[in-house]
Design brief:
With 582 residues, the protein is mainly alpha-helical. Helices cover 78% and strands 0% of the residues.
Length: 582
């Protein structure tokens, strides 16, 4: 990423020293760009329940909506900084804003799960450009180390602000603008598109910068890494509905493994690799890389599960889900001064361990909360989620910056930039895996728990064995978010099988009379699945907390080079905050 490139090669500016007006425009453009990127990043988290109801989507569909945005960031993030250095960061900012406009408008116009997934892919690429480029632009025009540390901290604050604004924006627009024939949540995406246009306008007066010397794209490495990660994530998402034993899933895993092995081989032979694999010979850095994946998986698995459980299963209004996400993301914004002080006065590994412990406590607490029954029918009140989610937010605030602080202090000074970039990639991979693996767990366990009671209900309603077998193939989420589709599918199959119209009508009436019972069992079955996800997230967070204890105290103490060159440390810490994604 660009700030990492600066740490490695130095900051080269293009053109004369900027005047006061262009400096102000650069700061405004950068701060608004990172706020925009995080708003679009966090919007689906508050709307998963809405998407499940409105699009009648499957478990895999919800997973793609939640994970596709992060995939757009992860697979290309190591190359955007190089492109900015080669061709000018201002041009990349323009590109990111334009792509964000397109992604937001497509999301606002989406009427199907497939359209929303496509919109998320476009929006993820746009945000993936804006995160690093906005930071590198303000770093390039701030030569003084102390001043640069302050503007980077401000940049991180605007990122956190976007994470706070987004869920409230989703909830309020869904509440205020929903009328007959129009879903109010779409207004949130139109507002995001308007912000992106404003970024474009402000950026016209911004200062450009570049650092092309010694920079070169590693295209073979980029392609094999991107395709390998996409194949693995595709296989995991597809397994949500098809199962891990399906031929498509197995083939995708094999293809992903081959591509990722090819990536490793390429990186060991190229002169300018995306990732210096020699970093992982350092055991302390390897541990940090592992917890970057497992810890952020735990965080996003809890966020995704909460979004679906509260919005999709408990049928809470979008604004309530938005309030819950403020408790998740708010501490990362409110505790910026506190976390900064802790990282510089307490060994970062202890800050990291404490943060993961908070996250584990949150996840284990949530795993005991009954899920799957709407609050109107006696289910858990949405306010009961506030205390454990506040613990999650505090844990996230303590860990998101500390991971990079520990990572850069475990490697030699000349590898600080690459270590920061690699840690960010691993962190984003953890973010992407949260909803993907979480869905595989939740919907797999939910389907298994649903099968036997569903068969009993259908048999008790008088449906023949072949009809029971066909309806048992419908996943529990289908009975909750797409009942009309279930009836239509059943009617079509029964008619095609030669059943008389009168018999089909009788079976449909019997099925309809059993709807409340079926949906109740479907909800509680999926609730068990998401409780298992919370439990898995808690285990991952505990594992992360324990592993950080094996990082030596020496490697997590402030490094002399970091003291001598505060620009590197500040950039790395801010880059860590840049990946705070829900």
């Amino acid at each position: 990423m660009s700030q990492t490139n600066t740490a490695q090669t130095g900051t080269a500016q293009t053109g004369p020293v900027p005047g006061r007006g262009s400096v102000r425009a650069t700061f405004i453009a950068a701060y608004s760009a990172v706020t925009l990127a995080q708003i679009t990043n966090a919007l689906p988290g508050a709307l998963n329940g809405t998407f499940a109801v409105e699009f009648h989507t499957s478990g895999a569909g919800l997973t793609w909506i939640a994970g596709m945005f992060m995939m757009g960031i992860v697979v290309f993030e190591l190359s955007w900084g190089v492109l900015g250095d080669l061709f000018g960061r201002k041009k990349l900012l323009y590109a990111g804003a334009v792509v964000s406009v397109a992604g937001s408008v497509l999301a606002a116009l989406a009427t199907t799960t497939e359209m929303m997934i496509a919109a998320q892919a476009v929006g993820g690429i746009g945000a993936g450009i804006l995160f690093p480029i906005s930071l590198s632009m303000i770093a390039a025009i701030t030569p003084d180390h102390r001043a640069r540390a302050k503007v980077i901290a401000t940049w991180a604050g605007f990122l956190s602000l976007g994470a706070v604004i987004s869920p409230m924006l989703a909830g309020l627009t869904a509440q205020a603008f929903t009328v007959a024939g129009f879903s109010g949540w779409r207004v949130a995406y139109y507002i995001a598109a308007a912000i992106a246009v404003a970024v474009l306008i402000v950026a016209v007066g911004a200062k450009d910068s570049a650092a092309a010397e010694g920079r070169k794209l590693d295209l073979p490495g980029q392609f094999t890494l991107a395709l390998g990660l996409i194949a693995v994530l595709f296989a995991t998402v597809t397994a949500v509905d098809s199962g891990f034993g399906s031929a498509e899933v197995i083939a995708s895993y094999v293809a992903g493994a081959v591509l990722l092995v090819a990536f490793v081989v390429i990186e060991t032979r190229t002169r300018q690799p995306l990732i210096h694999l020699s970093l992982f010979k350092n055991s302390a850095y390897s541990i940090t890389g592992i917890v970057a994946v497992t810890g952020m998986f735990a965080f996003l698995a809890v966020c995704y599960s909460t979004s679906v459980a509260v919005g999709g299963l408990a049928l809470a209004e979008a604004w309530k889900v938005g309030v819950l996400f403020v408790f998740i993301q708010g501490p990362a914004f409110a505790f910026i001064p506190v976390v900064g002080w802790l990282i510089h006065h307490v060994a970062p590994r202890w800050v990291l361990t404490a943060g993961f412990a908070f996250m584990a406590a949150s996840a284990f607490w949530l795993s005991t909360v009954p899920l799957g029954t709407p609050e109107a029918f006696g289910g858990t009140p949405w306010t009961a989620f506030i205390p454990p989610l506040l613990l999650l937010g505090i844990g996230f605030a303590l860990t998101v910056g500390s991971i990079t602080a520990v990572a850069i202090n475990t490697v030699p000074p000349q590898h600080i930039g690459m270590a920061s970039a690699t840690t960010n990639l691993l962190r984003d991979l953890g973010f992407a895996l949260g909803p993907v693996i979480g869905s595989a767990i939740a919907f797999g366990i939910g389907a298994a728990a649903f099968a036997a009671p569903l068969a009993g209900i259908l048999g008790g309603a008088g449906l023949p064995a072949d009809a029971v077998a066909g309806l048992s193939n419908v996943p529990p989420l289908g009975y909750l978010s797409g009942w009309d589709g279930v009836i239509a599918q059943f009617t079509g199959q029964a008619t095609a099988g030669g059943a008389p119209a009168q018999a089909v009508d009788g079976m449909v009436k019997a099925l309809t009379s059993a709807q409340p019972q079926i949906q109740g069992v479907a909800g509680t079955s999926l609730g068990q699945g998401f409780q298992a996800v919370y439990l898995a997230a808690g285990i991952a967070a505990i594992l992360s907390a324990v592993l950080t204890l094996f990082i030596s105290a020496r490697s997590s103490a402030p490094a002399p080079d970091a003291v001598a060159e505060p620009t590197k440390t500040a950039a790395a810490d801010a880059e860590a905050s840049a990946e705070a994604a829900v």
